[in-house]
Design goal:
single chain, 221 residues, alpha/beta, 10-stranded mixed β-sheet, 6 helices, 22% helix
């Protein structure tokens, strides 16, 4: 099966109101072509789950400035004042989650676990409305798993089967998000023949990837 499709075709599969796991850290490792196509096709009322919302006019910040996002689950929004404005105005309903906790919630969703027990946030407003579990005299918060309709990933390379590798810290949230999206769409910089990516360099295995965005560079099979 050839998994490579255009960004336009991929976004046609994403309806208004969809929940999206979007990889990246301040836009590094984000699927920028998919994001731009979401903007171009005018998707609205999205639920975005990501580390952050990028910067103004960059990365997920593009979805914020076009008011495409209704709900947000992220670790911080400090470098995007437009996100802050929309939250204060009630245009975005946001949940901020500690970074490590968010990573583990996504992992739990992808691995089929019932939740995550963490001491982070105990005794703070983070704990409001959440169950507390005491183990050996220590309190932990029960944080629920996170999954989404789609996982949108950025990658360095893909082969035609859909195996992915990443560039250094551009890896960030992408590999764990691959487990937690009902449909996984990866945007590699290039698509190469099977065998070009050394097996030890494969981080996300092809069985997790449903579609590839046609790369900027595509080499013969």
């Amino acid at each position: 099966m050839n998994k490579a499709i255009s960004a336009a075709r991929a976004v046609e599969m994403i309806p208004d109101g969809a929940s999206l796991l979007i990889g990246g850290f301040m836009g590094v490792g984000s699927p920028h072509r998919i994001i731009e196509e979401l903007v171009r096709q005018g998707r609205k009322h999205l639920m975005v789950i990501a580390n952050d919302t990028g910067r103004p006019s960059f990365g997920i910040g593009r979805l914020i400035e076009t008011k495409s996002v209704d709900r947000l689950l992220a670790t911080h929004i400090g470098l995007n004042p437009e996100t802050q404005k929309q939250i204060v105005a009630g245009e975005i309903k946001a949940e901020l989650c500690p970074q490590g906790t968010l990573a583990e919630r996504i992992r739990a969703g992808g691995y089929g676990l019932g939740g995550v027990l963490t001491p982070t946030g105990v005794g703070t407003i983070v704990a409001d409305g959440k169950r507390t579990v005491t183990i050996e005299g220590k309190d932990f918060l029960l944080e629920m798993p996170v999954k989404a309709d789609f996982a949108l990933l950025g990658a360095r390379r893909a082969d035609y089967n859909g195996n992915l590798d990443y560039t250094l810290t551009a890896r960030n949230f992408n590999p764990i998000m691959a487990f937690a999206g009902a449909t996984v769409i990866a945007e590699p910089d290039e698509i190469v023949p099977v065998g070009v990516i050394p097996p030890d360099d494969v981080v996300t295995q092809h069985v997790l990837v449903d579609y590839l965005i046609e790369g900027r560079h595509v080499y013969g099979r």
